[in-house]
Design brief:
The protein is of the alpha+beta class and 122 residues long. The chain contains 3 helices and 5 strands; from the N terminus they run H-E-E-E-H-H-E-E. It has one domain: 3-Layer(aba) Sandwich (Trna Endonuclease, Chain: A, domain 1), CATH 3.40.1350.10. The mean pLDDT is 94.
C-alpha cells in the first residue's frame, strides 16, 4: 500500500469518527438525525438533522483548532451545500415546511464536538 493511500484511509477513518461523534452530540441535544453522508448530484451533506421545524445542514470538520475548522469551509463549499439542501428538499416534500439552517461542527483533539448553529446563510 502506498503512503498516499494510507494517508487517505487514515483521513477517511478520522472523518467517519468525527461525523459519528457529531451525530451523537446532536442526538443528545434533541435533534433527529435524518441522514448522514447524504449524496445528491450537487454534493454531499455530512449530517442532515431536524429539530423544532428547522432542518440543519451540518458540515463536520476535524481540525486542530476552532479557527482551522472555520477556515476549512469556503464560501464555494457553503453554496454547494445550499444547492445540495435544495435538491434534498425538492425530493422530500415533507421537508419543504422546515426552515433551513447551515451549521458547522468542529471536532477538536480531546474535546466534545463544538456545534456552531447558523454559521452561514444562503
Amino acid at each position: 500500500m502506498t503512503r498516499g493511500r494510507r494517508d487517505y484511509e487514515r483521513a477517511e477513518r478520522l472523518g467517519r469518527r468525527a461525523e459519528w461523534l457529531c451525530r451523537v452530540a446532536l442526538f443528545l441535544k434533541g435533534y433527529r438525525i435524518l441522514a448522514a453522508r447524504l449524496r445528491v448530484p450537487a454534493g454531499e451533506i455530512d449530517i442532515l438533522a431536524e429539530k423544532a421545524g428547522t432542518l440543519a445542514v451540518v458540515e463536520v470538520k476535524a481540525r486542530g483548532d476552532l479557527d482551522a475548522a472555520l477556515a476549512a469551509v469556503s464560501q464555494t463549499s457553503w453554496r454547494r451545500l445550499a444547492r445540495a439542501a435544495d435538491q434534498v428538499v425538492a425530493g422530500r416534500p415533507r421537508l419543504s415546511r422546515h426552515a433551513i439552517r447551515f451549521d458547522l461542527m468542529a471536532v477538536l483533539p480531546g474535546r466534545w464536538p463544538v456545534h456552531m448553529p447558523d454559521v452561514w446563510r444562503a
